[in-house]
# Entry
Amino acid sequence: MIALECTLCSKRYQPGEVRYVCPACGPDGLLDPLYDYERARGDFPRLDAAGIARYLSILPIKNPAHLPPLLVGGTPLTRGDRLARELGLQHLFLKEDNRSLTGSFKDRASAVAVAAALDEGERLITGASTGNAASSLAGMAAALGLTTVIFVPARAPRAKITQLLVYGAHVLLVDGSYDDACDLSLEATNRYGWYNRNTGYNPVCLEGKKTAALELWEDFGREAPEAVFVPVGDGCIIGGIGKGFMDLRRMGLIDRLPRLYGCQAEGSAVLSKCQDGRIVAEPDASTVADSICVGYPRAASQALRAVRESRGSWLVVTDEEILEAQQRVARSTGVFGEPACSAAAAGLFQAVEKGLVGKDERIALVVTGSGLKDVEGAMKGPCGQGIPVPRSPEGLEAALQQIPGLL
Ligand SMILES: Cc1ncc(COP(=O)(O)O)c(C=O)c1O
Ligand SMILES: [Zn+2]
# Structure
């Protein structure tokens, strides 16, 4: 890394001069790590490494031995041919980050954050999260023997809280929203000097997330696809994917960005609604997709830039569309994503209807979290219930009769 550049005022800082946001612009002044791209290209990607370690020459990590000794990234890109046919598309792919170690895309950022913390000699990391960033941080920290203090909304899905507890994190269940949890974690960071892994605050997180774009580039035969659909809450994932493609362009490895589609839930759609970058917070944000339930998006400038510069667009979907999309994708591809990433699938369905994507384009849907993270959420969808069956042949017959067309 040669500099950190503010996304608002463009001021550049030396590595090590600033840790989190631009001192001149405050919390909205997110910093972009920049590299000596000419030099980085010589060792990119590292063919002898797996997962995110392939991209070390453009990651803010000084000592690669500080990365967790686990495979992070390197998730499959799978063809969704049956779903593609239903939609009249030819080349639809699923980037299966639901298969990641702790079950979500957030592992990419957490792995880079723990390595960056260790580079600076820090062994206690704090963070706020809707659940996935926290559980992935707790998992990566556990692998390295680090301490974590985690702020999550008390109403976060049980599976995510369970992961935190099993990994041995100190779990603070905030009586409030994700936005409240963020504010408290920043308070703790300032008061106690802990290392902070918040999305849209610590610039290394975005760099971890950009590795998905670098993998897509490799997966598509060292080319950019035409369109990528991404679920958005804080905007860090889409901002990171945008930054990844921009870094590839800076290295001269692609000459155009894929169109990035930011997909938000209707009850939590601040970024989709904001005009000219002016953010109007939504204090009562609410959606079944807990991971993207965000009233004050922390990575706004990078998310808006990603969609604008790639000539993509914003799509808003209802909770009903999200739960239907979750089921439709699961039934036509075998990939069971959590409600948040199903917002991206619902966004894709809308984009097809609106004619925003071409039939022969290569389209990637980023599956950011496992459906098993929130089974209560999934059960609110149209999947139905199991059929109770008594232990007798007559009972079996009666039960099977209830399934239309089976017998
Ligand atoms: C599964 C999943 N999808 C999407 C998102 C949205 O990411 P971002 O908040 O960076 O926009 C999150 C964030 O928690 C997530 O956990
Ligand atoms: Zn600034």
